[in-house]
Amino acid sequence: MNFKPSLTVLRQLVLAAVALPPGLACSADLVVITHSGTTLSADDIKDVYSGQTQMSGATRLVPVDNGAAQEAFLAQVVKSDLSRYNSAWVKKSFRDGISAPAVKTGDADVLDFVRRTPGAVGYVRVVPAGVNVVQLK
Predict the structure, then answer these.
(1) Is the full-model pTM beyond 0.70?
(2) CA 7 to chain centre
(3) CATH classification of the domain holding 103
(4) SS3 of 47, please?
């Protein structure tokens, strides 16, 4: 069988290889991104995804999950599994009246959402242009 990657796949691989700044810490190739007007630290990410932190300055944060990478992100960054994460958000929804992060299907959907939405926070596998990258510990 002869595998010939598409031009889009090759372009993404090249972007991932050259766009990753030296010393950028990624958690198993996951990169947390924010809307260009939103700045967060690595320490903020777990709090954002647990609903503890909802604002960055005067901007309401809008976290979004990446369905294709959610379990890895939860295990490595949030230190939870999908069942506990969903359960915690159900409780938080009833108790505090806030909604769980929307789940997008993959990197392209997350990237599009984060670029268009002020306060958006997401995670992807490929380092994109036009968004802020949060350096994870």
Answers:
(1) yes
(2) 25
(3) 3.40.190.10
(4) helix
